[in-house]
Every structure is written in C-alpha cells, then in structure tokens.
Specification:
Blueprint: H1 11-20, H2 26-48, H3 52-58, H4 70-87, H5 97-116, H6 133-141, H7 148-177, H8 187-197, H9 219-252, H10 268-280, H11 286-310, H12 317-326, H13 335-352, E1 365-369, H14 372-375, E2 381-384, E3 393-397, H15 410-417, H16 422-431, H17 437-441, H18 445-462, H19 468-493, H20 498-508, H21 513-526, H22 532-552, H23 558-567, H24 573-589
Parallel strand pairs: 1-3
Antiparallel strand pairs: 2-3
Helix pairs in contact: 2-4, 4-5, 6-7, 7-9, 8-9, 11-19, 13-15, 15-18, 15-19, 18-19, 18-22, 19-20, 19-22, 20-21, 22-24
Length: 590
C-alpha cells in the first residue's frame, strides 16, 4: 500500500488529426501547448501552497501544518472549477500525445477535487490509515535544522501543532453532531492511536533526532532548542491531545454505532459511489464490482486448487489451509525474521529486473518495522517515498502478532511494495523531469495499486517464486484482493454486516483472525473503496498486456510494454488504455 488521484475521448480521431497536420498548423499547435503549460503551472503553484509532502521530498521549507477545514476544501473546489473552465480554451486536436495526456489527467484531477468538497464531513480525521496527524508529525520532525533560523522555524511549527490538534478535535465534534461517528469496532483502534501520540515530552516523536542537527548548530543552541520544544510539547501539545482523547473516550464513545459501512450515514451511499469512482477511475457501480469480485474469487479458487494438486496434498482445501496456519516453519520467530524473508525475495527479484525493465529509479530503498503505535491499525504496513531527510523509499512492515503473520505471503508483499511495485513505479515517476510537476506527484489508486498487484503476480513469470509454496503465497495475496471486491461493496453498499464480511473472508481466504479483523475495518471504516483499486487495476493491466501481445505478435517486448506503462506516470485507467494504444501503434509502425 502506497501512503502519501476518466474522461473519454476519440483517440482514433486524435491520431488521424496528428498525422494529418501540416507545417502551417504548427504555430497554432504550439499556441495551445503554451496555453496548456500556463494553466498547468497555475494549478501546480496553487497545489504547492499546501503540498507539504511534496515539500518534504524536495527539501523545501514547510510553513504551515495541514489545513483540514471545510473552508479550505471549498476553496480548493472553487479553484478546481476555475481550472476546468480555463482548460476549455485548449484545442485537444492541436496537442501532441504527452500534452494530450496532461490535459486529460488534469481534467480528472480537477473533477476529483471539485467533487470532494461535497463529502468533506465523511472523512474521519482520527483513524490511523488516513489521519493527517502522522503527516503533521513528520513535517515537524523532518524540518531541516542547519541554522538558528531553522531552529526558530521548527519551534514556530511546534507552536502551531496544538492548534492543529484542536482543529481536529472541533472536526470530530461537528462530525458527531451530524451523526458521522466511527463504529464501535473501530473505537479501540482509534483510542490506541490517540494514546500513542501522547508521549513523554523529552522522548516525543516531534523532537528531531540528534543526527538532524547540522554542523553549524552548536551544543548550546541544541540544548536551548530542545528545552523550548519540550516545554511546548508539555504545556500545549500534550494537553490538546489529551483533550481530544478524553472526548473520544467519553461523550463520543457513548454515541458510536454498532454497524459499519459508509451507507449507514446520511448521504453515505452517494459518498461511497464517489469513493468507488475515485479509487477505480472506472464508471462501475458497487453492484457490478461485487459481481466481478465473486467471479474473481471463483477463478482464484481454481488456481489455488491446481497448486494444491502440484503439491500432492491429499486433503481438503480447509485441511490444507489449517496446515498452513499451524505449521511453525511458515511463521517468524521475531520481527527480524520477517525482514530477513523480505530481503531474501528482494535479492531474488533484483537478479532478473533487467530482463523485464528498461529503466529503474535512482532512489535507494529499505525495509523497516512500523512504529508500534501504528501496528494495531495497519494490517501489513505501507510504503513511503524518499524525502530529503530519509532519501530511501521505505517499506514499513508490521512486526506484531508473529504467530498469525505467515511468511508465505512475504514474496508477494515485497514485490508489491518495493521492486517492481511501488518503489520502482513511484520513483521512476518522481524522477521523470520530462513530465509536468503535477504529474510527477499524481497518485491514481487503480494505476498505482493495480501496478503493485500486477507486480506481485509478475513474480511468477520472473521466476522469483521458486517453489509451489511461494506460488501459493502469491495466490493467497491475490485471493485477498479478489475478496476485497466482494466485502468492501458488501459492507458499504449492500447491507452486509461486518460479521458476514468476516465470515466470507474466513471461508475463502487464508488470513489470520487478527488480519481479518483489521482488514474488515479498513474496508468499512478507514478507507472505504480504496481496496477496490488493487484487483480492478491489475485486471486492466493484464487485459491491456494481452491485447498488446495479440496486436504485436513477435514484435511484442515486455520491457517496452512496461516502459510504456511506467514512462508517463500515474493516470486514470481510461486514459491509460488510450496511452497503451498509442504506444502499441508506435511499436507496430517500427
């Protein structure tokens, strides 16, 4: 999971118009490209004002913490509508392929932003997966500290942190007034998360590590800074966090609903349909996705049965899964065992990357354990892009509940999160200076998570999975992604209880009880619809690849196909389809 977004067009007509252009038309074509570049820059300059994660990556100073206000959401929506209006003046027929992609992607982004403001009150600010609190903490703890001015700047941000927490407190109060409250099953996770934020001032995560202080900072300056920062944490920040935690544990907790799912809230059905559109970038209803999920579960069941036959297992599926859940050799004895297994698969895949990819990113990568305070709310972990202070892309794995954390899925997880998954895709995009800045930063879930899911399955073709247990572990992961289509839509749109969803996950998957409990809350509370992106995205990629292989025959080159997919960055799937068509047309003509 990468932590840190389709419009149709007659592409055949576009190709014909590009081919038919003559030299006298070039000036007009350039005019439209120049106009588009100006609009794109206007959009990007506005986005940078609050794009603090982008600033962390670029080592630029951050002057404000996340603005979570409704006024901010409304202002962003109004600006997005302004950009849409400006884009109407650009003649699509006069653009080259990359500019055409830029315009269509920007149209999608502005639509998403303009619509999101309608659903402002549905987004929870206190659930671990999507809370802005970890980002605000990261902003402060990773501020550059090279001069006395930097120290004062960091203290200024610390002073704003308490206000930021109080704004979240106000948001939670107003949500509750509107009847939008986290379900009862999620409350213990929220409480653990909030409690983990209240730390001893001298050991707070908000305090920069010693290695962060530059050589120009004296010991006396460091001591003075830490004294002032500790005072702010003790007298302002911790009291604000305590007040938020106490409210959630008190009056708020008395109102929590027993049910889960977005549709239980007033207007929740429309909100969920919006989330489905954003996550999948496809025009599919929850009911259609549910049906696709049932078909994919059945298909994956058949694949897993075939592997069990290869393993010559004589018992039932249930007996085999019981064996996988109870055989000690499939489980780590320590968190370090998990990390070692992940590194083992990393070494395997690195040996064969050149056979499948023309380019790899320059950014280094690494594997670390999640902070314990986040492990209860994140089933597996997440990947974070490199920043100026952490130049490696890091996959943070969950090292808790070792007796329920099967090592069989470590290979699929590694390929999904690092190479050739999130790290390779996201950093090729970040490092591609030929793309407009906003496209280097764009994340469209069906593209990014779809690619990561495709990468896990690609490991079989790459020879990374060296035995049938490896393959079965990959299929266990794929089954989870298929199941998500069924239970996410079930709980959020079709009236399924969490108990029914968990029973379905238990019947068809191989996840542990702890994982099922965590994942079912992820789908129904933390980030509804997000989990739909994985399988629907990878299905589309495999379909596009099959069509390209059929069209090109002997001319098909897997490295060039991957280069086409990765070379223009993240985009909605409908736009991706036209982009792949364009690439294959170029390949076919050579």
């Amino acid at each position: 999971m990468l932590r840190v977004t389709c419009l149709g067009f007659s592409f055949v007509f576009l190709l014909c118009s590009l081919q038919a252009q003559s030299l006298p038309q070039e000036a007009e074509e350039n005019k439209d490209a120049v106009l588009l570049a100006r609009i794109v820059d206007e959009f990007w300059q506005d986005a940078k004002k609050t794009g603090m994660y982008r600033d962390l990556i670029d080592s630029e100073p951050v002057n404000e913490l996340p603005d979570i206000s409704e006024n901010k959401a409304k202002a962003e929506a109004e600006f997005a509508r302004h950009i849409v209006q400006e884009l109407r003046a650009v003649n699509l027929d006069k653009l080259n392929h990359q500019d055409w992609l830029t315009l269509r992607i920007l149209n999608w982004e502005t639509w998403r932003i303009s619509e999101e403001a309608k659903y402002y009150w549905f987004f929870f600010q206190i659930t671990p997966y999507i809370s802005p609190i970890p980002l605000a903490t990261q902003v402060i703890s990773e501020q550059p500290l090279r001069s006395s001015a930097d120290l004062e700047h960091c203290l200024m941000l610390l002073g704003k942190y308490a206000e930021f927490i109080r704004n979240i407190d106000n948001n939670v109060h107003e949500q509750a007034r509107r009847g939008i409250i986290v379900p009862k099953a999620e409350l213990p996770i929220v409480m653990r998360f909030l409690s983990s934020l209240i730390e001893e001032p001298g050991k707070s995560s908000l305090l920069p590590e010693a290695r962060r202080f530059g050589p120009g900072i004296t010991g006396e300056q460091t001591a003075s800074f830490r004294q002032k920062a500790t005072w702010i944490i003790r007298t302002k920040i911790n009291p604000a966090l305590t007040e938020l935690k106490d409210y959630v544990a008190g009056d708020y907790a008395k109102k929590v609903p027993s049910d889960v799912g977005a549709s239980q809230y007033p207007g929740g059905k429309e909100f969920y349909r919006y989330l489905v559109r954003i996550a999948t970038t496809l025009d599919l209803s929850p009911e259609e996705i549910h049906r696709i999920g049932l078909e994919e579960v059945q298909h994956t069941e058949e694949q897993m049965a075939a592997v069990r036959r290869e393993l010559r297992f004589k018992g039932t599926r249930e007996e085999f899964h019981h064996y996988l859940k109870t055989e000690p050799r499939f489980f780590p004895k320590s968190p370090e065992d998990i990390e070692a297994r992940l590194n083992e698969y990393l070494n395997r895949v690195l040996r064969v990357v050149p056979k499948y990819f023309l380019h790899v990113p320059k950014a280094p990568y690494g594997i670390k354990r999640l902070p314990p305070g986040l492990e209860a709310g994140q089933t597996f972990g997440h990947y974070e892009l490199p920043t100026a202070t952490e130049p490696r892309g890091i996959y943070y794995y969950n090292g808790s509940h070792l007796n329920e954390r099967s090592l069989l899925t470590a290979g699929a997880l590694l390929l999904h999160e690092l190479i050739p998954g999130h790290h390779l895709q996201a950093n090729l995009q970040q490092e591609n200076t030929a793309l407009p800045a906003f496209r280097r930063s764009s994340i469209h879930l069906a593209y990014t998570e779809g690619w990561a899911n495709y990468s896990s399955a690609l490991g079989r073709e790459m020879g990374v999975y060296e035995n049938f247990y490896d393959v079965y572990g990959m299929l266990m992961t794929d089954m989870r992604h298929s199941i998500r289509l069924v239970v996410d839509t079930g709980m959020n749109a079709m009236g399924w209880s969490r108990e029914r969803a968990m029973a379905y996950m238990k019947e068809h998957g191989v996840d542990s009880e702890a994982q099922i409990e965590s994942e079912s809350l992820r789908y129904s509370v933390d980030v509804p619809a997000q989990a739909l992106a994985y399988k629907l995205g990878s299905r589309k990629i495999w379909k596009l690849r099959e069509e390209a292989q059929h069209q090109l025959g002997d001319k098909f080159d897997i490295r060039k196909f991957h280069d086409c997919f990765l070379g223009s960055g993240s985009m909605p799937l409908a736009i991706l389809e036209k982009h792949i068509e364009w690439c294959m047309k170029q390949a076919d003509s050579n």
